Amino acid sequence: MALYKISNVYPNYDKNFFEGKDIKGMDVYAGANTSEKVGTIEDILVDEQGYFRYFVLDTGFWIFGKKVLLPIGRSRVEMEQNRIYATGLTSKEQAERLPEYDHDMTVDYEYEERVRGVYRTPTVGESAPVEASADTTVATTSATSTYDRDSYTYDREPELYNTNNRDHDKLHLYEERLITDKNRRETGEVVVGKKVEKETARAEVPVEKEKVVIEVSTPTNERKVAPHKPDFGDAEVARMKVHEETADIHKEAYERGEVEVHKEVERDTVSAKKELRREELDVERKGNPRIDRS
Q1: What pTM value is reported for the model?
Q2: In CATH, what number does 3-161 get?
Q3: Domain extents in the chain
Q4: DSSP readout, 185-206?
Q5: Residue-wise pLDDT tens for the chain (294 aa)?
């Protein structure tokens, strides 16, 4: 059962628990309602679950600056008067029996047993509180059950560690809850554009060209013509048009495809598992008092 200073567990403890007041430095008075000042609050110790367990009391001149632990259930907090009454600390002799506390020490089971032994209510037949031995099994104030370092829990002794509305009206009860929420954040950006890529294309077109072929032949059997047929003038001309094909190669643009850009939402479920803490009131009733819970 490790103990921690309150500022290490609740950095804003003064705002959350004491309505803007810092309980450190608050005066402490002996007994339930006396004017005998026994010191000031130097710190508060909480357990692993965040529950208040001890006030660290600096006794100042009362016992030469000795620091001791005061179980939270043995105190009464009066925030309006800015003071705390150590209801379980009634005499200087009792305070002198308490083991001294140091901020650098480790509060272990044996040390807490020494503290509890001074504050416990005496059982029948005992005249003074019992200071427990570190190596033996200790009987609780009920005298019906036993415990050791492995089985002890703070709820075994509510008179030492429980808070109540009468004495601790400013020590609020809290519980933790799982809060689910979603945050939308940008994870990236997609830019769709076009770019021009160039390539060299080759095309071949077959073309035809006409050419004039002049063939002159010599007859094998020469024949004699009449004297009037030969015309040796310059006017006789043979005409023939010559054609050729030329290649027409050019570029034309065609639509080759269409791109549509849109977003789709994919849904997923994120699960988390956490341990929640809850503070509950533990009311000890002696006799048959009437209690109205509201």
Answers
A1: 0.52
A2: 3.90.50.10
A3: 3-161
A4: ----------------------
A5: 789 998 888 887 766 666 667 788 899 999 877 788 999 999 999 998 888 899 999 998 888 889 999 999 999 988 888 889 999 898 889 999 999 999 888 899 999 999 999 998 643 333 444 444 444 344 444 434 588 888 899 989 999 998 776 666 555 545 566 666 677 888 888 888 888 888 888 888 898 888 888 888 777 777 777 777 766 666 667 788 888 888 888 888 888 888 888 888 888 887 878 777 776 666 666 666 666 655
List of residues 6+ apart from 97 with CB closer than 8 A: 118, 131
Spatial CA neighbour of 24 closest among 1, 10, 36, 7: 7
- CB-side neighbour CA atoms (13 Å) of 166: 10
Structure tokens, 223: 């024949």
Residues in the chain: 294
CB 31 within 8 A of CB 85: yes
